[in-house]
Amino acid sequence: MRSLLTSFHFNKKMDFITAVGFAAATCTTIAFLPQLIKTWQSKSAKDVSFGMLIFFCSGVFMWLIYGILIKSWPVIFANVLTLTFNLIILYLKIKYETNYF
User: Among candidates 81, 54, 86, which has minimal Cα distance to 67?
Assistant: First the structure.
């Protein structure tokens, strides 16, 4: 993991483009928190499409891989958090609708 982190070109002085990337990443990631909180509190995910979650999580995972390959912290940051939030929603959907877990 250390070699992965040291291979990124991360200046102490964040440039404007990176700052915009982190701002965008923060906004798009936070957008999933209300759905996660609602699903958790209501113990229902019936309004969330299973197919959408599967395809979305797959796409976010590919964005994460892309971010790692191009060494882009904003892309990595956004997609790690977004994937985590959506995997929790997927878990809750399976748990509440099938009583599997």
Answer: 81
The pair of structure tokens assigned to 65 is 């891989």
pTM (2 decimals)?
Answer: 0.74
Q: Are 39 and 53 in contact (CB under 8 A)?
A: no
> Cβ(67)–Cβ(75) under 8 Å?
yes
The DSSP letter of residue 57 is H
Cα 28 to Cα 25, 34, 64, distances in angstroms: 5, 12, 14
- In sequence order, the 6+-apart residues with CB closer than 8 A to the CB of 81 are 25, 29
**Total residue count of the chain as it appears in this document:** 101
Per-residue pLDDT, 10: 53
C-alpha 79/C-alpha 64 separation (Å) is: 5
Q: In which band, very low, low, confident or very high, does the pLDDT at 101 lie, cut at 50, 70 and 90? A: low
